[in-house]
Write a sequence for this structure.
């Protein structure tokens, strides 16, 4: 399956938007528009600033110092200082 994105072309399932790595071709969601990719993946905005992908497919560039506790403290990863940026309200920046 693939997506036919206006002004961008044809992309296979799972291919990231070249202009926004937080969006992917996901024909099960939309075959004509970019869909949000997995939240909390690292990304870079148009200025090259590193950030974290939100659930909405937006690159959040506000990063907390340190790590966030994920899944009730069962692991850690770098995450946005806005606790809901990644769409996982359990994330607590330390």
């Amino acid at each position: 399956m693939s997506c036919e994105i206006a002004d961008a072309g044809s992309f296979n399932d799972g291919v990231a938007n070249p202009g926004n790595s937080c969006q992917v071709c996901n024909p099960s969601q939309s075959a004509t528009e970019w869909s949000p990719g997995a939240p909390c993946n690292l990304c870079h905005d148009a200025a090259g600033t590193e950030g974290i992908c939100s659930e909405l497919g937006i690159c959040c560039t506000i990063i907390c110092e340190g790590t966030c506790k994920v899944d009730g403290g069962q692991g850690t990863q770098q995450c946005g200082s806005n606790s809901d940026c990644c769409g996982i309200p359990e994330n607590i920046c330390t």
Notes: DSSP finds no helices and eleven strands in the chain. Residues 1-37 form one domain. Confidence is low (pLDDT under 50) at residues 69-76, 80-85, 87-94.
